[in-house]
Amino acid sequence: MLRTRFTEEFGVEHPIVQGGMQWVGRAELVAAVANSGALGMLTALTQPTPEDLVKEIARCRDLTDKPFGVNLTILPTITPPPYAEYRQAIVESGIRVVETAGSNPAEQLAAFQPAGVKVIHKCTSVRHALKAQQLGVDAVSIDGFECAGHPGEDDIPGLVLIPRAADELDIPIIASGGIADARGLVAALALGADGVNMGTRFMCTAESPIHDAVKQRLTEADERETELIFRPLRNTARVASNSVSREVVEKLDAGAGFEDVRELVAGARGREVYERGDTELGIWSAGMVQGLIDDVPTVDELVTRIVGQARELIEGRLARTIGG
Ligand code: NAD
């Protein structure tokens, strides 16, 4: 057992979170994560309507008795979803932990705090983390430049971002971005984090509800095979390198606007990648950490391995450095 402020305050066995992943955070994966003793998050906007989210929460409860959370991300979007209705669905379903992301959490906190829902706010800079703490979130998940999805615009990797956050914040910190194994977990704890968040690593597990060909691609790809799209639009996203993401980078670098790449980047097209297994069909998310992933274990094998090896690392290699 690895005990931290996060495991104590959030009542989970292991200091490991599976955070929001659009199209991936569904009941099969989240329940497997919960059953392994880690904290999984359904991704609210993966469900087409708030009513579908209510059904997905119920489906997840059929698969696990353990607690799980829901991610609700507010980012620039082609068709703005009814965020308030999704929040109502989350609260009315009795969810106790929410991961907010993508923008200032004030609007989200106003709905979740009065209902007693704990909020973990995912952000990408110390200043945003401090703002979230001041607003009253219960923890922050701070995402280094290595991460999949939206790394922000400052490009600060976890090795600097996590200890900077630890120096400034009083609430528990989840280190996110670039973590896939026990080495990442132990390093994050040493840097001052109270737990880790993993996305890409959980995408590549047996229970992850995406096509096997995408998982296969993640095991083959190295750490250099990602692209940063939307950089000139200040909505940077790290995605798998493929013909579509490279075309988007080229067009935006040449001065194109969002409308010129809208068809290429549409989430509905990226979703086809996960469903059909053709990794060249659209944009899909992957972090640099894919370079560290070379198998497709079950979630339970993965979590057991990480926690076991973390303990061995602390008691073995690290203890030996001080003669223990
Ligand atoms: P989408 O099809 O609306 O947009 C595709 C991509 O284009 C997204 O990365 C989006 O941020 C970006 N985008 C849209 N309009 C933009 C604009 N005007 N300027 C710059 N960039 C723009 O989104 P989607 O991929 O279908 O996602 C559906 C919903 O899920 C959206 O509301 C999105 O914010 C959200 N989402 C959640 C997560 C998560 O992990 N929880 C990750 C990504 C997206």
UniProtKB/TrEMBL annotation:
Q: Which SUPFAM superfamilies match?
A: Inosine monophosphate dehydrogenase (IMPDH)
E.C. designation(s): 1.13.12.-
* Sample GO molecular function, one term: oxidoreductase activity
The record's section on Gene3D superfamilies has:
Aldolase class I
Q: Which UniProt keywords apply?
A: Flavoprotein, FMN, Oxidoreductase
Q: InterPro entries this protein is in? A: Aldolase_TIM (IPR013785), NMO (IPR004136)
Give the protein name, as stated in the record: NAD(P)H-dependent flavin oxidoreductase
